[in-house]
Every structure is written in C-alpha cells, then in structure tokens.
Amino acid sequence: MITYVIGKFVEKQPGSLVVESNGIGYKINISLNTFSFIKEKKEGKILTYLHIKEDAHILFGFATESERQIFLNLISISGVGPGTGLMVMSSLSPEEVRRAIVHEDVKTIQSIKGIGGKTAQRIILELKDKMAKTGLTEGMGELPAGINNSLKNEALSALITLGINKIAAEKSIDFVLKNSGDNITLEELIKRSLKTS
Fold this sequence. Notes:
Blueprint: E1 4-13, E2 16-21, E3 24-30, H1 32-38, E4 43-52, E5 57-62, H2 65-75, H3 82-91, H4 94-102, H5 106-110, H6 117-133, H7 149-161, H8 166-178, H9 186-196
Parallel strand pairs: 3-5
Antiparallel strand pairs: 1-2, 1-4, 2-3, 4-5
Helix pairs in contact: 2-3, 4-6, 7-8, 7-9, 8-9
C-alpha cells in the first residue's frame, strides 16, 4: 500500500497531479480541494490511497488527512466508488461534507453529480455517528483568476477527468461564466459547473 508520495509536482491540473519521486512519476487523481492546496507549490507530500481493480491500479491523493479519511469513509459504503468519492470531495470541502452528514442534509449531498436520493440517505445513515465524533475544520483557500480561455480549458479538463461528457461540461462552464462575476476562481467555476452539468 502506498501511503504517501513526496516529490516534485511535475504536472498540476484540477483533477490530477504527477509527482516525481526518486526518478519515478506517479500519476495521482486529486480533488478540487487538494488542487487548491497544492496549486502554488512546486513540491511536497501527498497522502494517498491505492485503489486496485482487475485492470488498473489507481492512486488517489489528498492534501490533508481529514480529506483522505472522509474519502475512505465514503468509499466504504456500498454503491459509492472512488470516482464518486472524488466527485464529493471536489464539490464540497471536508467540513461541508461533515456538516451535511451530521445535520442530515440530504439535499446538499444529493446535489453532487452521480449521487441519488437513496445513496445520499445511505451516506448519512452510515457515516453520521463517525462524522459527529470528528471535528474537521479545514477549509480551502481561493485565489482569484480572471475569466479567460486558459481558465475555461483547465475547468473543462478537470470536468472531463471527473467523468463529465465534454459537450455537457462545455455547456455548464459557459452557463456558469455567463452568470458569474469577473473574479470567479477556477475551483468555484468547476464546483458550480459540476452542479449544473
């Protein structure tokens, strides 16, 4: 099991990261929360979870232990796979996930792409007690970015990485950009687009 990787951040995108460590490049799938933590850094430590399937070994990475723990709790639930877990962590901060579960906010959890009413209720039912015992207070920092083609392209790349159809992703991004101010951040653009796609 690979618990963490320390090295240079060779490639950074909102949905994935390549870390070079001892001459080996590790491709790691990351959430929007983790991207916001590492986007200004050139190197560092990424906590990981290795998901093993018959046809692939996939690394998922996290900037904080609280995010990794919530992700692991989510994928322990029947019907919630790593892709959905990453979608949750890209749509909400660890504290927002914890708050939604503790307060039985089905609507917030159901607003995440790929999660229906039954799955949202199952998540709350199975994780409420665990979440109530943990005080997760880590938020995410945001840096302003102007609306331009590179912002749009990065958001599109992230949405496609998260499993959204390219045409649907483009429509969502255009809709969000049209209805938001000039100072929307990349993270906010992706979050809002996830909710409208």
